[in-house]
Amino acid sequence: MMIHTNNYILNIKELWDDVPEEYLSHKERYENAIKKAFIVLKVLRQLHTGNIQITDHRTPTNVYSIQDGIFRNVNPLLIHIGLFWSTIAAQASTEQQAEWLQPDSSMIGTYVQTELGHGSFIRGIETTATYDSTTDEFILHTPRLSAYKWWPGGLGNTANACLVMAQLYINGTCHGLHIFLAQIRDFDTHKPLPGIKVGEIGPKMGFNTADNGFLGFDNHRIPRTNMLMKNVQVLRDGTYVKPKHDKLTYGSMLLTRVTLISDLAYQLSKAATIAVRYSAVRRQSPIKSNEPERQILDFVSQQHKLFITIASSHVYRVVGLWMWNSHKRVTADIHEGNMGQLPELHALACCLKAISSRDASALVEQCRLACGGHGYMMASNLPQIYAYTTAAVTYEGEYTVLLLQTARYLVKFWRLAAEHKPLPQNFAYFEDYIKKNFEQWRNSPEGIIEGFKAIVAGKTKAAYDTLQCNLRNGREFEEAWNMASVQLTNASEAYARSLLCEVFWKETVQLSTKVSKSLAIVLEQLAELYLMYWALEKHGDLLLYSTISRNDIEALQSRYEELLALIRPNAVGLVDAFDIRDEVLCSTLGAYDGRVYERMMEEASKSPLNEDVVNESFHKYIRPVTMKNKL
Ligand SMILES: CCCCCCCC/C=C\CCCCCCCCC/C=C/C(=O)SCCNC(=O)CCNC(=O)[C@H](O)C(C)(C)COP(=O)(O)OP(=O)(O)OC[C@H]1O[C@@H](n2cnc3c(N)ncnc32)[C@H](O)[C@@H]1OP(=O)(O)O
Ligand SMILES: Cc1cc2nc3c(=O)[nH]c(=O)nc-3n(C[C@H](O)[C@H](O)[C@H](O)COP(=O)(O)OP(=O)(O)OC[C@H]3O[C@@H](n4cnc5c(N)ncnc54)[C@H](O)[C@@H]3O)c2cc1C
Q: Which regions span the lipid bilayer (predicted)?
């Protein structure tokens, strides 16, 4: 059957709620979401097997983005689709993949890594997988409470299988973390298998349809062939065959960090669409006292809050794609046995995941604030987008922890520069900084990019010098590192910002040659706005580390304000161009037709508190108090 995914999914009645999900209990929310998740899964399976085919051109992202509207929260199968399958595809041997990656598989899986006691420091994970050569099995075991798995999405009620990260033991030797496929529930009855203690962890700030769960193993046995064996093997006699790189097991985290950048771009585009459209509808106070009230979008301070969100969505879309292509290239190299580019990819993914999630949550919150009181309503959908986005600052590698990973990479190159050793081309600016080869400041995108590189160099130098000073004072390296960690994270943050500015500007200039002149102008305005915004935000750093002057900063401020005015007439068009359907946006404030107040009233009428003219609590609790003396 040929289908148009949008229409097909939008017309499946059971996927769309009559009662807004905020009025459901924790249990009802899950049950409602799981009903929908399996309808969506069926569609995805039909697409995969070719039983239905797609006629629209933007399919994978379309299905993904329509889901946002269907769940208004999170698809409980997000980890099954996004992490379970992709980890098997990347880390299982060809034979394992042939067995496990069947489109009609009974397995509903999740990715089980974090424990009650350890999330960031994964070498500290306590779950063990001990090889028993007499039976050719691994014994999965949770030795104590802190070793209970805690957090995996879909684990609480949905999954019947999982990929477990555990410490591998063979003949008493620990070989570190490895991934194992374990069935945890009966495929038919869905009851936990013997030796499995599993459940759901309770309500959270967001992700409340994702049934995040806990899991403990009591000497649970799985076949030896259930260890993911593409990069590393345990043979029948217990021989351990090492991987070519000891962090290949962390590959799923790397991939998800890369994918998340695009997902965050999409969340930003939703928030921007809601806030910009609302700001075009909402009128509040005149600018000149003798004039009618103005659209709040005409206030320059409002433009300052919103246009950076539009621009940032484009930045993360462009950089997300750039990272996706790098990931593809590096993965192909790894297949050929060449690990050379992995450290760079890891360093980039860490800082970009950290900064994209932090930026996205700050900007979504800014959009909410820009919608005044109405932005605080759940029906605006901004609170849900915020709760979803801010979780990404923590999961898949906590913000600070990831920045410190990138700092290791920066410090290595600074050490080379300090010792006057050869540097790769992309770090040549470290040498320039040491030799004080400072460029004359230019108030242009290219000048700002150079300025940001000077900040990276200056901050890396400062962190490195502190590190060296701590070492000279007799500290051990790890302690000296901890003492310098504020400066180290600052250097990583600056590095991410310089990458974002450089990649976005270069890609935009290139793209501009391929589109109409009028579109090119707007795209370049957005890119320039992004660079100016951050140059002004970081003007203190520029004053410290580059040759910028006070006059230059004043000129940047004027150009920034000019850009706000230039973008203003296109603001609504720019968010319309994100092309997000009302059904996906789920916002009273952001719908295409601009019927904001009507929709707000329609949504209010769905409140169960409006079902009775007089709520029964009046008779039970209020009247006895207020009428006491009059009875
Ligand atoms: C219209 C537009 C639509 C857009 C549509 C977009 C479509 C998007 C589709 C899907 C979106 C998907 C969204 C997914 C949502 C996900 C939902 C939430 C799921 C959450 C899951 C989780 O959270 S799983 C758990 C994650 N946990 C972590 O991330 C733990 C973090 N900790 C670590 O990673 C490690 O502990 C740490 C790296 C911090 C340290 O490791 P350790 O072993 O201790 O390292 P160490 O010995 O110190 O050595 C460091 C050494 O190793 C190198 N290294 C570390 N990691 C890697 C790696 N991954 N790869 C390569 N190398 C690595 C590191 O560089 C160091 O090297 P040296 O400096 O020593 O040379
Ligand atoms: C919504 C959501 C979904 C999740 N889904 C999954 C899932 O599907 N599967 C899964 O396995 N896990 C999942 N997780 C768990 C997630 O990966 C971890 O919570 C995350 O990696 C952070 O680890 P943590 O909780 O141990 O934080 P901690 O590491 O305890 O962080 C607490 C604080 O300590 C600081 N800190 C920790 N270590 C250092 C250090 N070395 N240096 C400096 N500061 C440090 C951090 O910066 C932070 O400020 C999920 C989490 C959330 C919130």
A: none
Q: What whole-number distance in Å separates Cα of residue 355 and Cα of residue 178?
A: 29
Q: Would 100 be classed as within a structural domain? A: no
Do residues 352 and 484 both lie within one domain? Answer: yes
Contacts of 591 (CB under 8 A, 6+ apart): 277, 582, 585, 599
The two tokens of residue 482 are: 């901890």
Q: CATH number for the domain including 162? A: 2.40.110.10
Mark whether 146 and 174 lie in a shared domain. Answer: yes
Q: Please, which residues have CB within 8 angstroms of residue 57's CB and are 6 or more apart in sequence?
A: none
Indicate whether 21 and 50 sit together in one domain. yes
**Ligand 1 environment, Cβ below 6 A:** 61, 64-65, 78-79, 82, 111, 113-114, 120-123, 153, 247, 250, 253-254, 256, 259-260, 262-263, 266, 342-343, 346, 395-397, 401, 405, 408
- Residue numbers of the domain that contains 191: 107-243
176 close to 227: Cβ distance less than 8 angstroms: no
Q: Is residue 55 part of a domain?
A: yes
Among 529, 550, 574, the domain-final residue is 574
The pLDDT tens digits for 511-537 are: 999 999 999 999 999 999 999 999 999
Q: Examine the predicted complex and report whether its ipTM is higher than 0.95.
A: yes
344 lies in the same domain as 483: yes
pLDDT digits (tens, 9 = 90+) for 139-169: 999 999 999 999 999 999 999 999 999 999 9
Ligand nearest, relative to CA of residue 212: 2
Is residue 458 in contact with ligand 2, taking CB distance under 6 Å? no
Q: What is the pLDDT of residue 341?
A: 96
Whole-angstrom Cα Rg for the chain = 27
Distance between Cα 120 and ligand 2 center (Å): 5
The residue among 186, 214, 243 that closes a domain is 243
The mean pLDDT of 199-213, rounded to a whole number, is 97
pLDDT classification of 353: cutoffs 50, 70, 90:
very high
